[in-house]
Amino acid sequence: MSSQQSVLFDVPGPRARRNIVIGNVIGAIFVLGIAALVVIEFARKGQLSWDLWGPVFTASAWENYFLPGLQNTLRAAGFAIVGAVVFGLVLGSGRLSHVRVVRWLSGTVVEFFRAVPVLLLMIFFWLLLGFNQVPEPSFLAVVIALVLYNGSVIAELVRSGVGNLPKGQGEAGLAIGLTRGQTLRSIQLPQALIAMLPALVSQLVVVLKDTALGQIIVYNELLRAAQIFGNGNGNNLQTLTVAAVIFIVINFALTTVAQWLSRFLRGRTAGATSAGPGIGNPTATTTATDAVTTGAGEPTGR
Question: Measured between alpha carbons, how far is 182 from 147 in angstroms, rounded to an integer?
């Protein structure tokens, strides 16, 4: 176990590791047992018949339903993710501003959109855009609602991420002549983004899954396409199962990429510096901002 992990919690001993393994095995057996019971029940009710599963794997089903629905899901999620990150960074920075009016306005916007259900936002913007005859009102309503809601959540992640940094990081920026805004953008935000990356990825997964709410406002995303195909062929269970598997694969891929990105960024933001005099360790690893704070590796004016 790495030293970074051992800082967060005590390293499990032999007995604790054995208990963890036993618990994992029992949990796996329990889950497999439930899955076996579900499969047996499906078989008893005839839901495993090829007459029901066969249409799902035809070229027509994928060309006309699943792939167009997946394309619309990824399209809405892509625009919403980019918009939510930008919106969250702007509002999160606003909540950290030293100008009281900016802090108040940013906080009001964040708290308002966090309190409103995302489905209600979708319906509101769908009706508003439809009454004004805006093209693609369903798509725009899904994107706008996801941007506003998830951007507000990301803004809170940014605020808490910066707030959890050591105070010395901000003081170091001010000490070398940076303004508060420059310190926030150049020193604090980059570190906060890396620290909150797991929570940020979880929120982006929520964005992808919440695109399925677009079916309520007749946006032809993956779930709606699967429902239409299932209603036409009388195999809703099978088509929805395929849609669920597609969502799981995409979310797993997104999480894997985020984990790789987190390791990559941590490697890029750490570097070897020479230890100061009197330190027994010949080298030390610090972040760039730690080097600014401590002055490690810089000549002293003696």
Answer: 26
Please give the helix or strand (H or E) that residue 273 lies within, else none. strand 270-274
What value does the CA radius of gyration of the chain take, rounded to a whole number of Å? 25
Q: CB neighbours of 240 closer than 8 A, spacing ≥ 6?
A: 223, 226, 227, 230
Mean pLDDT by 10 residues, the chain (302 residues): 47 83 92 90 83 88 92 93 90 83 90 92 94 91 95 86 68 68 69 72 85 91 91 88 91 81 64 46 43 42 40
In Å, how far from its chain's centre is CA 180? 28
- Look at residue 12 in the predicted model and tell me its pLDDT: 76
CA distance linking residue 158 with residue 192, whole number of Å: 7
Which residues on neighbouring strands pair with residue 280, listed in sequence order?
Answer: none
Instruction: Please give the helix or strand (H or E) that residue 198 lies within, else none.
Output: helix 197-210
CA distance 166 to 274: 23
Q: How far is CA 141 from CA 76, 218, 285, in A?
A: 10, 11, 48
Query: 274: which DSSP letter?
Result: E
Q: What is the pTM of this model?
A: 0.73
